Amino acid sequence: MKFSYSKPEPAPMQLAPMIDILFLLLAFFIISWQFTRQETELSVSVPTAEEGADPSRQRGEIIINILNDGTIRVEGLSVDLLQLNEKLSAIAKQYQNQPVRIRGDGGVPYQRIVEVIDTCQKAGIWNISFATQRPGEN
Length: 138
Hints:
alpha/beta; 37% helix
């Protein structure tokens, strides 16, 4: 008995699934980029400083915007100090050393900034930084 052996033909590479995955990744990164930009209120004019930390965000950083009229905004929602405390307390219980960046408008009374810092500390968050910009940047 004689068996014939034939080499199998190589399977062609399927491009459609690879293109689908690339489009999904592209959509994910575009959407997540838009959400991070939305957290920084454009109407907040942060104070200027010659020297400052790197403006890049830390992973998982919460941004607290304090508008010129004293309104506190977190994740696009206006909150009062009690709501801010509840939100930060829940996050601080889950994540130790949770970073928070305070973006206070230059015209906000200092007392309002101190109230937000105090609320962060009451909630158990100590990793607090402040947003500034270099002179001439807008």
